[in-house]
Amino acid sequence: MLLAVAAYAAAGHLDIRIVILVGALGALAGADFGYLIGHLGGRPFVERFGRVLHLNPKHLARSEVFFTRYGGRAVLAARFVLGLRTWASVLAGMAHMPFWRFQLFSALGAAAWATLMGSIGYFLGRHWSLVLSLVRDLGLGGLALVLIAVGAVLVHRRRAS
């Protein structure tokens, strides 16, 4: 949704700064709700509903160790991993991470995520004719491969540095 609204902002209909701010606040509110669920529902809740996402007791044990070891950094990094973005808040609450610490790293992650997604959406909106041209020339599969390749190069560069 943030990508689409940011692309709409690129057409001059909205202020991209407000779009990013609202996106970050929405992400933060959703994360707080997830934390509350994990904190109040605890392990029984996660065991019961985690099965939907194939989260078994072995995964839970590993996630508890992971959150104990990495804490806030895990919350921050999870913001950028599809699927984990939702469960990280619940797992942090389940692990009884102090709320102020969770909130700090969650806010940093939400701001970074919203800025990245908003910027990508804004860029795509500003260059929509190029996007359409690529889709026509490469097809959706080819475009997906190009995006995956660009993402792999960026991840490789980040790890190298």
Describe it.
The chain starts with a helix and ends with a helix. Helix content is 85%, strand content 0%. The chain has 161 residues and is mainly α.
Euclidean distance between termini CA atoms: 31 Å
Q: Tell me the Rg in angstroms.
A: 18 Å
Mean pLDDT, rounded to whole units?
83
Shape: globular
Give the number of helices.
7
Q: Estimate percent helicity.
A: over 70%
> Can you count the beta strands?
0
Order of helices and strands: HHHHHHH
Strand content: under 5%
pLDDT under 50 segments (min length 5)?
Answer: none
Number of domains: 2
Major beta sheet summary: none
User: Which structural class is indicated by helix and strand composition?
Assistant: mainly alpha
Summed up:
This protein is mostly helical and 161 residues long.
Keywords:
161 residues, mainly alpha, 0% strand
Fold topology:
Layout: H1 2-10, H2 16-50, H3 57-70, H4 72-78, H5 84-94, H6 99-126, H7 128-160
